[in-house]
Amino acid sequence: MSRLDTNRSGEMEVFIRVVERDGFSAAARDFNMTPSAISKLVGRLEDRLRVRLFNRSTRKLQLTPEGQRFYQRAVSVIADLDDAEQEAAVALCPRGHLRISINMPVGLHRLLPLVPAFRRAYPQITLDVTVSEKMVDLYEERADIAIRSGPLQSSGLIARKLGVCRMAIAASPDYLARYGTPQTVADLRDHVLIGYNFVRAKAEWPFKVDGEIVTVLPGGTIDVGDAESARHLAIAGGGIVRLGKFHIEQDVKAGRLIEILDAYYPGNGRGGVEINAVYIGGGGHLPARVRAFLDFCGENLHLK
Fold it and tell me: Among 98, 213, 218, 219, which residue's beta carbon has the most beta carbons within 10 A?
């Protein structure tokens, strides 16, 4: 009897392959087994778990909700097993493939410039980096780490704080010359404030006026889909923008943007946005490649 018939991790591997290959026949070819043997193995797994993992029809297999949850955990378990074996084999030298999703400002202006140094430090780790404002599902996208800005939604993910990004209000010299430089928060009512058109964006801009926190709602006249577009629009004279200081530091030095209303910007964390790395946890085991990347970011990202 094949070890895959009796070994729990082997059962998981077969189940995962059936899901990813969308059927028993394709999975059977991968394992050099018959479709019938694969079907029986999955059936025994369902009997042992006392749940139905697939809804079967003559045309296709479809995961049940229980099957989807088991698939997500199985992928994580097998990844952990692979990492444990690799670490033991190479004396804990981090290696393997690392998939990362990161938002555009941090990705373009902080992370990507660090990739060559990370690769020199960890040549056995291969990288798949996606820079996007899309809020990815780590399970669906099979990503290892997502770096996210702002408040985190409640989830089963583990978060590691990488820093707090100080924010700034800025506009181009051309815009300010045409429409005037706001001297107070109230003056913003007469200006174009560039906002965002995605739901998860924190819309309000916080200011401190006479010791109290007040907020201003941007957008309506011009909304964009990501912070990098907002930056380019502001440089072009399209309006006033709120962006991370690290995001526009070179533009300010070069005179493309001018910071305004700095005296009204709140301290004590109210004027900053927290940056976190989130990843799938469980069992207390963090893959070496994930730990290496998190540690590297913590030491080199410099988001403050």
Answer: 218
Tokens of 301: 């990202």
> In terms of C-beta density within 10 A (0-12 exposed, 13-18 middle, 19 or more buried), how is residue 265 classed?
buried
What length does the chain have? 304
CA–CA distance, 205 with 193 (Å, rounded to integer) = 10
| Residue 184 buriedness (CB in 10 A; 0-12 / 13-18 / 19+) | exposed
CA gap 74, 76 in Å, rounded: 5
C-beta separation of 98 from 145 below 8 A: yes
Q: Report all structural domains of the chain as residue ranges with CATH numbers, in order of start.
A: 3-88 (1.10.10.10), 93-164+273-300 (3.40.190.10), 165-270 (3.40.190.10)
pLDDT tens, position by position, 142-160: 788 988 887 777 667 788 8
pLDDT, average across residues 229-245:
95
